[in-house]
Give the backbone structure.
Amino acid sequence: MDLKDKKILVTGAGGFLGTHILETLVARGVPERNILMPRSTELDLRKLGDCDKAVEGQHLVIHTAGITGNIEFHKAHPAEIFYDNLVMGVQLMEAARRGGVEKFITIGSATEYPEYAPVPLNEENLWLGPVEETHVSYTIAKKMLLVEAQAYRAQYGFNAIHLLLTNMYGPHEKIDGGPIPSLIKRIADAKAVHADTVTVWGTGNVTRDFLYVDDAAEGIVLAAEKYDKGDPANLGSGYEVSIRDLAMTIGRLMDFKGSFIFDTTKPEGQQRRMLEVSRALREFGFHATTDFEKGLQKTIASHGY
């Protein structure tokens, strides 16, 4: 798909990932006038009629809108997270199919993998067992969009694809988003009051695969241009880091001289999570290019520290 002459709907365009997708599209030569970026105050995607309005005249839909947050938020709002994410995605895809949209991209999550799937997490193992319980409302809502995409492809020939994103990070992510901005804020607060310690949830031994948001946006746009298969595709860095090492690295970059206390009474989720990324490289030429420490430095600077 040559995107330059296409009308493109990007949901969640005001969010962390959505803003970077817009920048990537414009850098590709897509005129801003061809990109529809409705806010929730303008169109409520939980309403089918508003979904119909959103997709009218569009060639491509990149659906990033959703309700998510940290572990505390997921524990407090499981019903809202499940309903909003599921209904928005299901109705928008149905509206897109009926409206003649050429291609639909759903953004999934690495949490869709079974809790005890082999690491690195390979797309072939997506259905090996139950998912980890911490984010189950979010995870199942996202995973059902893969089911819908494959069902619509099988019955209607609708070109819907599903991308599985790992933990993203980067400039201007919400402080209460992922572990990286949370750690930045805690370290900054400790330094401000000359505290000697920073508390981190969990043992520090769990591992994650962190993908710089610009790389994530590039992967999504490459998939829009080049990937037209029903099989889900991972977007990750291919680099696994423990939360303990992450805290130490951010502390060093922020010149924090104290130590870290790991609160093992707090939940920490799936023990290991790193995506196997060869399919994305093979099918549409994506691989992460941002050096992890340089990405962290840019992220820290964006929060004013």
Summary: The longest strand covers residues 103-109. The chain is about 40% helix and 15% strand.
